[in-house]
Write a structure and sequence with these properties.
Layout lengths: L1 H10 L2 H31 L9 H38 L4 H40 L3 H18 L1 H8 L3 E5 H14 L4 E5 L6 H9 L3 E4 L2 H9 L8 E2 L6 H10 L3 E4 L2 H5 L9 E5 L19 H13 L3 E6 L10 H18 L8 E3 L15 H14 L5 E6 L1 H4 L3 E13 L2 E6 L8 H5 L7 E2 L14 E7 L8 E9 L6 E4 L21 E4 L1 H4 L6 E2 L1 H6 L1
Helix pairs in contact: 1-2, 2-3, 3-4, 7-8, 7-14, 9-10, 13-14
Length: 548
């Protein structure tokens, strides 16, 4: 409106005023929109959850804006807006400013109507492009996964276990779980390890955590009982579910747990009047759209809410001893960890400045990533970034972390076999004896896509030597069209009975599987080099459990 008015004042021409208003509209609109989009892409636009460079963010901003507003802008700038701003004063009896405003509103309505279709089309195209790039498997990564699988198969006699147990079969290397515990402890010295049982509660994993000096993060009574059944002392465990029934709190307390997490006044109220040795952590919310699972979308308190919870707890006689947070599951980059810890420590200092008992604990949560079809930031890189802040609080704060995916995902291999073959639209398709309702449930639940390698590529269970790869579709065993594990995936030509191996299958696979269609859950066995030397193997095959 200002552009139209100034142009008209200088020229006295409604035509030039319409052009001036159109130019000013574009400068104002795109000045704000492009700046905002650029900042969003710079922070959150990485295809794999990481940050973009300024050049990449600028290019992505241009592509997104062109897709969303290109057609609408062409129609708006060349025809609709100049015509509306020119015609409005002629066809109405309104004063010029009001007439131009009416013309602007009419042009805006047309612009956003066209832009809405562009937004939908552009978003769909971007999702397809992003999904394809994120889950594409490059030759270098594939080669490294093949090498790792070859070592696993050689060290743990995959062929022998398949001959004994059949397929599908999940094999957990418990030595590797223990090694990852030690690796975490070396990268983040002094941070207490609390393993998240929900990720995979297999006895072999629990044994490895206990033998490494770790404790546990539990979120239900069933998880507590499973640990107690294995002889685990749960007094050092933390109950991290922010929402609990009062009866669950009572039962957890009787089992020996003393540390619980809350994130809202209703949950805090459940602890008023309970035994004085209960310790409470306030869960903070740090939104992270780059994570596969942004847990703060469901749980956590803002800083303002957390301050109020601490004050209310102290008024009600509940011992709040610290804060916890979770930066999100399966992300890339160290920036979210650094930002969350920085803000949490600042809040600790603020609360301590009030007087009263100083806070004692900061729970760093989980989210430590692993590599599926792309390598992820290492635990050492995360530790290096956090170490200065942790060191500055040694002796005043106890730090804990809820390790889950990092400990077990890459320690576990799934072995499946081809049970059928077909062709659809010229694309070969193979049916496996495990699928998205089973161990590949992470494909659906988390949008995580594991690597899949044919055993014949490892010279196991089939013809030896490298073979040409073709793009295929892999489907699961259920009679449901949703049960598709991978599309357009590179594999050699397969036959019924051929074995396939998937690494990185220890996290959120067996625990989120179902018995849909009557397909039994995949057996799980724990293997180790010690077992191959003649020591016992802990195993938990689903078929034996069902029989029992």
């Amino acid at each position: 409106l200002l552009g139209a008015a100034l142009t008209y004042q200088v020229s006295g021409s409604l035509v030039l005023a319409a052009a001036g208003g159109t130019v000013a509209e574009n400068l104002g609109f795109y000045g704000v929109m492009l700046t905002r989009t650029f900042r969003e892409q710079l922070r959150h636009g990485g295809l794999s959850g990481g940050q973009l460079t300024s050049r990449a963010a600028f290019a992505r901003t241009g592509a997104l804006s062109a897709a969303e507003f290109g057609p609408a802008e062409l129609a708006d700038s060349l025809l609709v807006r100049p015509l509306a701003l020119y015609a409005a004063p002629l066809v109405t009896n309104l004063p010029l400013p009001l007439a131009w405003f009416a013309g602007k509103v009419a042009a805006d309505a047309v612009f956003y109507l066209v832009a809405a279709f562009g937004h939908l089309a552009g978003s769909r195209a971007l999702r397809r492009l992003t999904h394809q790039r994120v889950h594409e498997l490059d030759d270098v990564t594939r080669a490294s996964r093949v090498d790792a699988l070859f070592d696993f198969a050689r060290d743990h006699d995959v062929a022998g276990h398949v001959a004994h147990w059949g397929t599908p079969l999940l094999m957990i290397d418990t030595d590797d779980v223990a090694r990852r515990c030690r690796r975490f402890q070396a990268a983040l010295p002094g941070v207490d390890l609390q393993y998240a049982v929900k990720v995979c509660g297999h006895p072999g994993v629990v044994d490895a955590v206990v033998s490494s000096g770790g404790s546990f993060d539990v979120a239900s009574l069933a998880e507590i009982e499973s640990l107690r059944d294995l002889g685990v002392d749960v007094r050092r465990a933390i109950h991290t579910h922010p929402i609990k029934k009062s009866a669950e709190i009572d039962a957890a307390y009787r089992a020996g747990l003393r540390t619980f997490v809350v994130d809202n006044p209703g949950e805090l109220a459940k602890f008023v009047g309970r035994p004085s040795d209960i310790r409470v952590l306030v869960r903070l919310s740090y939104r992270n759209r780059a994570a596969k699972s942004d847990l703060s979308a469901k749980f956590g308190a803002t800083a303002t809410q957390a301050r109020a919870l601490v004050r209310a707890a102290r008024s009600g006689g509940v011992a709040v001893v610290g804060f916890s947070f979770h930066v999100g599951s399966q992300l890339d980059g160290v920036a979210p960890f650094v930002a969350a810890l920085t803000q949490t420590l600042a809040l600790v200092d603020e609360v301590d400045a009030w007087g009263g008992p100083p806070l004692e604990v900061v729970d760093l949560g989980g989210g430590f990533p692993v590599g599926y079809r792309h390598d992820a930031v290492s635990i050492e890189e995360i530790g290096q970034a956090l170490q200065p802040m942790l060191e500055s609080r040694r002796g005043t704060l106890r730090f804990v972390a809820e390790l889950g995916r990092y400990l077990v995902a890459e320690s576990t291999v799934l072995v499946t076999s081809v049970i059928g073959a077909s062709e659809r639209g010229g694309v070969p398709g193979y049916f496996l004896d495990d699928g998205v309702y089973g161990s590949y449930s992470n494909v659906i639940c988390e949008d995580v896509h594991p690597v899949i390698v044919a055993a014949k590529e490892l010279s196991l269970g089939g013809a030896e030597g490298s073979q040409a790869l073709e793009r295929v579709t892999l489907a699961g065993p259920t009679c449901d069209s949703v049960d598709v594990v991978a599309r357009n995936y590179p594999l050699p030509q397969l036959a019924i009975g051929d074995l396939l191996l998937s690494p990185t299958m220890g996290a959120y696979t067996s625990v989120t599987a179902t018995d849909f269609n009557g397909v039994p859950r995949t057996p799980i066995i724990a293997v180790s080099r010690r077992a191959r030397a003649g020591l016992s193997i802990r195993h938990e095959p689903a078929r034996e459990q069902d029989a029992a």
